[in-house]
Design brief:
CATH class of the largest domain: Mainly Beta
Number of helices: 2
Largest sheet: 4 strands, antiparallel
Strand content: 35-45%
Distance between the termini: 101 Å
CATH topology of the largest domain: Immunoglobulin-like
Structural class: alpha+beta
Radius of gyration: 27 Å
CATH architecture of the largest domain: Sandwich
Helix content: 25-40%
Shape: elongated
Length: 178
């Protein structure tokens, strides 16, 4: 009788140990899945950014407003990334005092390890490597284009490339007509 009691006790303890190990593994897997979902959510929050590539001669469009940007020159210098190009206005609005802001960051996938350590790293967007704003474009009429040039400081050429986000500086004025 005691022998059966020992066997049943050992079997019960073995089942409990295996059950605890399986539960621990499931909790670990769920935490990893939740972490992956949080990273995916942080990346999707950047979907609205108007990203550009440094491809010369390619017409690219901003997500907000559909403005076209074509780069004539994109080269890395000792001062940073030099950009020269043209912005086109597809709207029926006249824009005055338009300053274009360029923000260079690492590619988004390169922030995943930083995000795992500190989820707040992506709270206000990825940290910028460099930012620069063009001199204001005095007048950009409907259906017209204007040239710009800017050097984004601290940007160096890497094999991964940089992520360029373009936005307007905030001081522009809009009016209907020519």
């Amino acid at each position: 009788m005691q022998k059966w009691l020992i066997i049943v006790g050992v079997a019960l303890i073995s089942v409990l140990v295996v059950s605890a190990a399986v539960q621990g593994w499931l909790i670990y897997k769920m935490r990893k899945d939740i972490s992956g979902l949080q990273w995916s959510d942080a990346i999707h929050e950047r979907d609205g950014d108007s990203e550009l590539t440094t491809d010369v001669g390619t017409i690219q469009f901003t997500k907000k407003g559909g403005y076209s940007i074509t780069l004539d020159t994109a080269k890395y210098t000792g001062d940073g990334l030099y950009l020269h190009g043209e912005i086109g206005n597809p709207t029926y609005l006249t824009i005055t005092n338009l300053a274009i802001k360029f923000t260079a960051t690492k590619q988004l996938y390169q922030y995943e390890d930083d995000f795992d350590k500190d989820p707040w790293v992506m709270f206000a967007g990825p940290p910028a490597i460099g930012e620069a704003q063009t001199s204001p474009i005095v007048y950009l009429g409907p259906g017209k284009a204007a040239t710009f040039e800017v050097t984004i400081p601290n940007v160096k050429q890497t094999k991964e490339g940089v992520r360029l986000v373009v936005s307007f500086g905030g001081g522009e004025r809009y009016a209907y007509g020519y």
